[in-house]
Every structure is written in C-alpha cells, then in structure tokens.
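Duplicate of #3305? Posting structure anyway:
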C-alpha cells in the first residue's frame, strides 16, 4: 500500500507544472503544512530587505519616499495583488492589519448602504474571532445591531433590514469554501453591501472580485501570499463605490493633497482613500519582493494543484490512519473546499506535538482539530504522502 502511494506521489510530482516553484523558497526537509498561518520565506527576500535597509533607508534616507517610490507603495503593491484576486488595477490598497481593514470595510459598507432603516449587520457566526469582534464594534458605532448567521443560513436572514454582510471566503477552521458568487448575489438582491474576508483564499484559489460584483473585501498577506510575519493586509473597494466610500479612519495619507497639511479633510480619489497613516515600509517592501514568486503563475493552476493535493492527502490518510481515528471536517466536494484539510482527532494537542517532532508541521485549533494547509507553490505530493504516513504512525503508536 505505502509503496504504491509513494510511487504515485513521485509520478504526480514529476508531472507537476508548479514543482519548480519550490526552489524559490527557503525550506528544509520538514513537511511544511502551515503556510495557511505563516507562508514560507521566498529565498530572495532577505537580499531585497537588506537593500531597503542599508541603501534606501541608510543612504538615500528621506529621498526614498519620492525617488524610491516608497510613497506610492500601498497602491503599487495593491495592483500586484489584484490579478490574484480577480481585480482590475486601482481598487486595492495595502496597509494596516486585516483587523483594521475589517473595521474600515464594515463601517464603510454601512455608510454606503445609507438607509437608517437598514439596522442589521450580518456576520459569519463561525468567523475568525477578530472579524466578529470588530464587526460588533463597527455595528455599535454606526447605530446598527450585529446578527451572527451561519453562512449556510444567510439566505433566510437577509432582508430589507440588512445593511451589510461580512463573510469569509474560506472558513479558517474547517477549510470550507463558501459560494462567493451566489452569496454576493443574494446580498445584492436584499439591497445590502457585501464585504468578503479573503484571508484563506487569496493565493490559494481564484476569487473573481470584479467578476462577481463584490463590493468590499479585505485579506491578509502573510498566509498564502508569503509576505512575512505581520505583513500588511489589503482593502479592496470596487471602482463603483470609491467616490462614496467614507472611511472611518481618514488619516492624512488618504487626503487628496496630503502635503497641503490642511486642517480640513478632503478624501483622495480611488484606492488611496483606504489609506490611513504612514505606510509600514519595511514590511510592505518585504511583501512586494515576496510577490515575485507569482510572476507567470496562473491562479487556476494553483487551484488545480491544491485540489489534487488535498484529494491525495485525504486518500493517504484513509490508507494509513487507523479506522475511526480521525474525521475530516473539510468538505469532500471540490466546490466547497479551500486549500486546507482539517481533521478532528482525540488527543489532538499531543498528536500535533508528535507530528511536529517528526518533521510534519501543521497546527492545532483547540480543542480537537489538526489543520494541514496546502500551499501549491512549495508543497508537493510526496509531502502529502509523508504527512499522512507519519500521522498514521503517530496514531498507531
Ligand atoms: C488570519 C486571519 C485574520 C488575521 O487578522 P490580523 O489582523 O492580521 O491579526 C483575520 N481574519 C481572518 C478570517 C483570518 O484568517
């Protein structure tokens, strides 16, 4: 059994058109299945950062804001992310954390919806906690009420009282992929504004923001986009909303003429309006360098490999792991699956510690979920086979 799975893994790796991308990353022989928490380091980034620090900051100093184009980095890097999430240029700005961008987006969405009779902000009840906490505060500040709703029950919860809806494209715990086109259309049918969190989908699968008429979106860059720990997040505001987008954090760098230093605020046009304060240049330029690994990569190819990897991993788990020892929380249907596999398992903390000690790096979501993220640029089929084999050994032992 294990020999034939190992042989299949080798054949799948040999036929993999993305296999060459792995050498772009600094990796060792551990199987790294935690790129959905912290993407691996692209090997060329340290040299680029050394240049930013020693030459741009150390020698050019203040001149780098203009001559080195530090000033426009948030929009420039937003335009690098845009094709990965199906957005035309000019709609994405990079900066701040995902949490802060959730705040801008939810308040911005309520303000776009306009009508005070729309009293409800709907939020994914299973969301990553920060989104729920911040949406609740945003609702309170805008005089609305927060209504937690499971994404599967959204259709029944939408109505004339809905102002805005915050949803996750992929659930961080289970890896479930939600139907962005259909849910966005349902939100629009109710006359409300749709905000999507792309943290677990951008860089893993096609998103199609423009094609599906998404209003606002946010996402982080340190997971599938490999921007580095705490790298800045991004905010998407669709072109058609930009003129009316009213940021709750109108910092000076979003002003139409920031160096006029005017006491009166006047918002800039376009994506710039989503900026707040001085951009976090070191992290931002690390992210910009990291995005080079996507040159020439089609997100559809990434998606096809991601599904093949998670299928193969689940097949290997079924073959190697004792019956009944784990239950997959990740949907079997491709249309409902992101790029991770979540396995419910007794004694999960000990099992994950043991996996890590044996060179298989996943993570734990308490109390009982083992999470394995599949990042197609640097994870291969032999990795999937080895991870499942080691999991089987740990659970047998
Ligand atoms: C990773 C993640 C975040 C992270 O937010 P930070 O502000 O970067 O800490 C937020 N929301 C979701 C859905 C995530 O997966």
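Output from current build:
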């Amino acid at each position: 059994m294990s020999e034939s799975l190992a042989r299949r893994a080798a054949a799948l790796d040999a036929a993999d058109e993305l296999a060459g991308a792995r050498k772009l990353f600094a990796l060792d022989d551990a199987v790294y299945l935690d790129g959905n928490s912290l993407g691996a380091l692209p090997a060329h980034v340290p040299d680029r950062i050394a240049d930013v620090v020693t030459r741009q900051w150390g020698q050019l100093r203040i001149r780098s804001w203009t001559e080195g184009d530090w000033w426009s980095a948030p929009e420039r890097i937003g335009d690098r992310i845009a094709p990965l999430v199906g957005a035309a240029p000019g709609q994405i700005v990079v900066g701040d954390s995902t949490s802060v961008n959730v705040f801008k987006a939810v308040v911005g969405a309520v303000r776009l919806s306009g009508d005070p009779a729309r009293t409800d902000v709907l939020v994914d009840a299973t969301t990553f906690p920060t989104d729920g906490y911040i949406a609740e505060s945003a609702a309170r500040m805008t005089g609305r009420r927060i209504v937690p709703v499971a994404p599967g029950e959204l259709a029944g919860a939408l109505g004339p009282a809905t102002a805005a809806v915050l949803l996750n494209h992929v659930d961080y715990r289970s890896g479930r992929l939600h139907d962005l086109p259909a849910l966005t259309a349902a939100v629009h049918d109710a006359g409300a504004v749709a905000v999507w969190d792309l943290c677990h989908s951008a860089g893993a699968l096609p998103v199609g923001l423009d094609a599906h008429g998404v209003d606002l979106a946010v996402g982080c860059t340190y997971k599938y986009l490999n921007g580095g720990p705490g790298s800045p997040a991004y905010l998407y505001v669709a072109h058609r909303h930009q003129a009316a987008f009213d940021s709750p954090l109108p910092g000076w760098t979003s002003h139409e003429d920031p160096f006029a230093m005017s006491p009166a605020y006047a918002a800039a046009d376009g994506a710039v309006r989503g900026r707040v304060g001085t951009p976090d240049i070191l992290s931002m330029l690390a992210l910009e360098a990291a995005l080079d690994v996507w040159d020439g990569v089609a997100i559809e190819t990434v998606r096809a490999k991601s599904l093949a990897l998670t299928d193969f991993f689940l097949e290997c788990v079924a073959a190697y792991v004792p019956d009944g020892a784990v239950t997959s929380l990740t949907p079997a249907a491709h249309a409902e699956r992101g790029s991770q596999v979540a396995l419910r398992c007794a004694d999960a903390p000990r099992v994950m510690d043991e996996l890590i000690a044996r060179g298989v790096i996943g993570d734990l979501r308490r109390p009982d979920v083992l999470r394995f993220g599949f990042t197609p640029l640097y994870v291969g089929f032999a990795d999937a086979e080895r991870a499942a084999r080691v999991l089987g050994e740990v659970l047998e032992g």
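Confirmed duplicate; merging threads. The first helix runs from residue 2 to 14. The pocket of pyridoxal-5'-phosphate is lined by residues 97-99, 128, 130-131, 168, 172, 197, 199-200, 220, 233 (CB under 6 Å).
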